[in-house]
Amino acid sequence: MHKIWLVIKREYFTRVRNKTFILSTILLPLFFIGFIVASAYFSIKSIDKQKIAVEDNNGIFKTSFQSDKVITYEFPANVNADNFKERGYSAFLYIPEHFNSPNDSVSLIANKQLGVDAEQKVKDQINTAIRNKAFLENNINKKVLDSINNIDEDELYKFSTVIKQGDKTQQSNSGLSSAIGFGSGILIYMTLFIYGAAVMRGVMEEKMNRIAEVIISSVKPFQLMAGKIIGIAAVGLTQLLIWMILIVGLSSVASSFISHDMLQHAQNMSPAMGQAGANSAAANFMNAKNTFLEAAPWSLIIPCFLFYFIGGYLFYAALFAAVGSVVNEDPQEAQSLMLPITMPIILSFVIMTTAAGKPDAPISVWGSMIPLSSPIVMMARIPSGSVPAWQIAVSMISLVAGFILTTMLAAKIYRTGILLYGKKVTFKEMGKWLFRKS
Amino acid sequence: MNILELRNIKKYYATQKAVDDISFAIPQGSIFGLLGPNGAGKTTLLRMITGIFYPDSGNIFFEGKKFEPVKDIPFIGYMPEERGLYKKMKIGEQALYLAMLKGMDRHEAMKKIKDWFVKFEMQSWWNKKVDDLSKGMSQKLQFVITVLHEPKLLILDEPFSGLDPVNSNLIKDEIYKLSQKGATIIFSTHRMEQVEEICDRIVLVNKGKKILDGSVKQIKFDCKENIFKVGFNELPKPFENNVFEIVNSKDTFLTVKINERYTPADVLEQFLINKSSIISFNEILPSLNDIFIKKVEDTKLARQFEEV
Lengths: 438, 308
Description:
In chain A, 66% of the residues lie in helices and 7% in strands. Chain A is α/β, with parallel strands linked by helices. Chain A has two domains: 2-42 and 174-434, no CATH class; 50-150, D-Maltodextrin-Binding Protein, domain 2, CATH 3.40.190. In chain A, strand 5 (161-165) and strand 6 (168-172) form a beta hairpin. Residues 270-280 and 288-292 of chain A have low confidence and may be disordered. In chain B, 33% of the residues lie in helices and 29% in strands. In chain B, the strands form three sheets. A six-stranded mixed β-sheet of chain B has the order 6-7-8-3-9-10, with helices on both faces. Chain B has a four-stranded antiparallel β-sheet with strand order 2-1-4-5, with helices on one face. The longest helix of chain B is centred in the middle third of the chain and has 16 residues, at 165-180. The two termini of chain B are 36 Å apart. Chain A binds chain B through residues 3, 6-7, 10, 14, 205-206, 209-220, 419, 421, 432, 438, and chain B through 14, 47, 50-52, 54, 70, 73, 76, 78-80, 82-89, 97-98, 100-103, 145.
């Protein structure tokens, strides 16, 4: 045990002290936060203030149009389609006297695109004005109309989806839970590759530097492999922890830079764009902290994430180590030998994209039980809160059994491979090593 | 007493018998040469002695008891033929790490490393990386790392390859010193002049089998071919005789091979009858190099792949 501990310490400290580690650990969250702040900033910056001159021939719009921070409506005389620019307006809105046939066209004249967003707002204003006019003409009291218009749906009621399983009920927010599921799935997917490849490179380095033989005359091959795998796991956890601290810390700093008002803007703008633009992502992210994140089952998500992060890593790391041990100088060889390991990881990613949206689909359920894909797929399902406890238990037990099995098999390949030079090893030979007694 | 004893060791790989029933013993405190051509099974043998491989059958005894790798490894130092060090790790830390893996505590390891670094004038290397060292320098470092924990049994696979004569001598002196302090040393090499100079005993293996085993002196004696070098004032004229054949003639020397059933005295007698002016008469023992080549040539040199 003492020797494994020495190996773990070496693996950990040589990596943590490495410049690339320090850079990537600090720069990645900075980059992430920077991206969000920058996109929020630019989306707010890019809101053009518009001043629109309106020629209102029947006079009903003057009272109804309401200027806001982005668009100001004015009703000047003597402004027409030819001279609105000189008078300092960004656009000219012509509204005909009657609205009796589709031939009566309202036209917005501008000398550059106002943007989908602004056009939609102008249309909304016109529609509201026409609707109001129709209500009033049909003897609806102005007071009543105003009070109806001023109803704020959010104050009237709150919408929530509740998941009910037996006696247990749970708040749900399917959009949010699928986002969290997707996010954690991707994170585990990436870490499997990043840290798995780190294990493989470490083993290849020891083999190619020929230090493996020196070390194996002091420690058992299994101790060396296990020490490396655990050491790199510790590096991964350290990195994850630093990222979490930095992201939480920096995002609160960043959100204090962007005023609530500006965020409101960004959010108001985005639905009109009809898509999840960068600014809406930014706004959602900033808002997330206060509102819906509280609803997610964090007490389940965080321990599960740590479990699947470590479990998934352990399941694949030993396999990566085995591949590293049979590779000779040729990096091409590593590529082809890695294929059987990378395929299931990529496949799990594909299943995960389904599981994040449909956590209870059969493929999601099966994918989250089989240890090959469970670390990625199960993490996509858990935030939904609808995964029965027995499924989590089966998945966890099979993952633990799985990584014990892969580690045992990989150790057999590793032990032989690490001391074998200059020979291309086929899968068939590796198979023989698996069934050979020591 | 024998520090190490191998009894009927076998290790078969898929396509060949790497070590096929080899037995020998190494006396405590000796300098022992393990010789053999490429692919003879030397490295496999050494890996079994260092606990890296387990023999398929047969037993290894270390200090009279059955060899238990976990327990006995701290008393063995092994410098493999393929040198290996972490290229990106600082030299001082690396030496410390490897010493601690051998079971030394930190404080003791640190002290030993410093002593050796001073002895080999390597103090300025501490914070350098192996990448910065020349081949000879890293060879010295490797040697230091191998002997740091003062092993009772030191196994050196081609220890002088890549070293200049000055550094070769430096390491050779250290090896003698360690031997005087009681360490047993196993040398594995194909450089016969070094073996002749350093080793007390040798074992020659080829194709997984032991061919020769014994003290250098004894082996040379056993392999001698009754060849003598005779010096003259003036080279005698050739004459017919049954006693010897002239193998070689150079300057005023004749190299003669004595035929069976005759003795050196018979040779001298022949020359004296001829009134030759003899001034010297020496037996030529074969060099280990000759013995090696002759013994190995008797068997097929290159290994063939075979079914096991």
